[in-house]
Amino acid sequence: MALAEQQAELPRASRRAAFSRSSLVYFLRRYPLGAAGATIVLAIVLMALLANWITGFDPTATNAHASLARPGGSHPLGADFMGRDMWSRIAFGARISLAVGIGATTLGCLFGVLIGLTSGYFGGWLDLAAQRLMDMLQSLPLLVMALVMSAALGPSLENVILAISIPLVPTVARVIRSNALMLREMPFVEAARATGMNELSIALRHVLPNTLAPLIVLATAQLGSAILVEAALSFLGLGIPEPYPSWGRMLSESAAEYVRTAPWLVIFPGLAISLAVFGTNLLGDALRDILDPRLRL
After folding, report:
1. Which H or E element spans position 139?
2. Which residues lie below 8 Å from residue 15, measured CB to CB, with a gap of 6+?
3. Are 177 and 191 in contact, with CB atoms under 8 Å apart?
4. Residue 83 DSSP code
5. Where exactly are the structural domains of the chain?
6. Which CATH class is domain 29-54+79-295?
7. 60, 184, 233, 284: which has the fewest C-beta neighbours closer than 10 Å?
8. Is residue 8 over pLDDT 70?
9. Confidence of residue 92 (pLDDT cuts 50, 70, 90)
């Protein structure tokens, strides 16, 4: 009996593997730009995870003899004015950008989902109060709001994550609220009420799971925005403090004084920021097309 079950499991495993391969091939053919975006994001994630092994220098170690070294040799991307290896700083800077981007997006989505679901499903005075609060938060652009929050909290990794997450909340809350308003009138919600299920259980077990598709797309797009805002804050001196490597701070230190004499100090951090934002945007567009049935025709 056990042998028969093991033999039955083999075709199932092979079918699952074949299905995974066919799904991957379909994704590559149907959404080539999304595949390119996923490849860029995966490369940045791997660079951040393997930074200790793929770089040969401490990103904070200075070397006067290597000051403004050109790309090549032991410094493949050159060195900055303090002799710090640019490749090491960009690789370790990916950790900072991903930590801030993922942390701010997760925190912003968490509060946004809580506010949007409560506001859209329960309505009444809760909806009125929550939407007026969201109006106030949305009255300022994302970067301006993050600047105000970061200046008030002070420069640190935790404060930067908090400063960027708060301006993300209104956008997430609006999307979740609009979906909750539609879903609470659907027949399956009415059927759940008819069985005697309480409203909180309906909201968590039936309404919330059906808002995950637009939330995934929105979170992917917000990830790129969070990375870009972190770079802007660090460029202005309100982001990640020294000695931690940050792509935005690397630009701030070099853009004005060394853009002509050592352009690699500006080109490589700027390219890293651009690729990170570009990759997340491409991936977000592909996920939107996949998860929205109206766009799959």
Report:
1. none
2. none
3. no
4. -
5. 29-54+79-295
6. mainly alpha
7. 60
8. no
9. very high
pLDDT exceeds 80 at position 18:
no
Task: Identify the pLDDT of residue 272.
Answer: 92
Hunting for tokens 């701070």 — which residue is that? 249
User: 218: closest CA among 272, 185, 275, 177?
Assistant: 177
Calpha distance 214→287 (Å, rounded):
9
The Cα 251–Cα 189 span in angstroms is 52
Percent of the chain with pLDDT over 90: 16
Give residues with Cβ within 8 angstroms of 212, minimum separation 6.
none
Q: For residues 91 and 233, what is the distance between their CA atoms, to the nearest angstrom? A: 19
Tokens 């679901």 belong to 117
How many angstroms separate the most distant Cα atoms in the chain?
77
Reported pTM: 0.83
Q: How many residues does the chain have?
A: 297
Res. 196: pLDDT tops 50:
yes
Distance CA 266, CA 248 (A): 10
